[in-house]
Amino acid sequence: MRREPAAAALGCAGLAAWAALVGAPVALLAAGAAGGAAAASETGVSAGLVVRTAALAAAVAALAVVLGWVPGRLLGTARRGRAALFALLLAPLLLPQYLQLYAWRIYFSPPTALGGYLSMRPALAEAVGTAAAAGVLLLWHWPLAALLLSQGWRSIDRDVWEAAELDASRRGRLVRVALPLLAPSLLLAFGVVFVMGFGEYAVFHLAGVRTLGMELGVVYEQTGSARAVARAAWPTLLPAAAVALLLWRRTEDWSSGSSVAPPNPPHRAAWRWAVLAALLAMPTLLPAALLAAAMAGPARPAEMGALMGDKLAASLGTSAAAAGGALLLAGGALALGSLGRAGRMAAGAVQPTLLLAALLPGSLVGASLVEFQAALRRATGLPEGWWTLSAGLAARFAGVALIVLRLALHARSGALDELASTDGASLVRRIRSVHLPQVWPAVAGAALLVAMLSMTEVPATVVLLPPGLANFAQTLLNQMHFARDRLVVASCLMLMGTYAGIGALVALVAWVLRGRHRRLPAALFLACFLVLSGCHSRPTGVAKVVGAFGTTGWGPGEFVYPRAIDIAADGTLWVGDKTGRVQHLTGEGKPLGGWRMPDTDAGLPTGLTVGPDGNVYLADTHYHRVVAFTPAGRLARRWGGYGTGAGQFIYPTDVAFGPDGRIYISEYGGNDRVSIYSAAAEFLGAFGSFGGGRGQFARPSAVQIDPRRRRLYVADACNHRVTVHDLDGRLIGGFGAAGQAPGELRYPYDLALAGDGRLLVCEYGNNRVQLFRVADDGSAVSEGVWGGPGRQLGRLAYPWGVCLGAGRRAYVVDAGNNRVQVWQLE
Question: What's the total number of domains in the chain?
Answer without folding.
Answer: 3
